[in-house]
Amino acid sequence: MLSVPHAGRSQADGDALQELLTKRVLPMLVFRSDDVDATFKKVRASGAEVLQEPVDQAWDPRDCAFRRVTPSAWRRPPGLIQATVTHLANNHLIKRPFGGCLVFMAASSRSLGHMRALAHPLRLRMLSLLTGGPSSAAEVARELGVSQANASYHLRQLLGAGLIDDAGELAVRGGRARMYRHLPDPGASVHEEGTPPSVEGTAAVVEALIAELRRRYAMADHSVRGNLTDAELWVDPEVWAQTVTAVTDASHALHAAARPPRTDGTIPVNMTSALFAMRTSPPDSAHPEPHSDTP
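Above: the chain sequence. Below: its structure as tokens.
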């Protein structure tokens, strides 16, 4: 969540953010709101152009978006929003009116924490590792080839986001090691009907998935049967619902069968799925582009 550039940040991070604002290359301001619907009504009444009405996003938070927000709108949002915008405008860090995108997101530390924690390839590997059984930071570090300090840092981020559980302590070499476990709900990532994901909110997670898939595919064993599917299709809603259920059930079964690395009789495998219904046109376009036979 954006506040004044140096609030809660290191000097270097604050300076970097202020430079982006000064150059006016930051295209979006995001604020947390205790009542998104009430904030939406106030900002819309100021004459701002509505980009998105309040909607419950697939990963949980409710949000709305505007652009071309007029100066009168700065006085309407309460508390931190007003103070932040006033600070940025007074220091000539944003223009009045602000021509970028202004997003108000419902306060939801769990959802925002999930997104931030997932947006890192190493943490995705940790979640997979801890699905097979509990491990300590030292064990995670050895398995993934990172330092114990690095592993401990990322485990704390996952624990703070509620993505892994504290599995107690284990006596090791005269001391005690904290153990962690991931008990996933594979179906939880399936988008609910009528709540399309926000590109802005999921972009970092998608990039992390892409990076991790590249790493895994480079290690693919093509002598063992697998499947690679890519499809952008038009199907009956009933067929789509059945497909989502089937893939979700398969994901549940695979996660339930996970074992610690190199357990006798097991092989390393990958499953990456991204099932979602699509709009008929890009979200920033009211109409689809005309068909062209030009390649």
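The chain has two domains: 11-107, 108-276.
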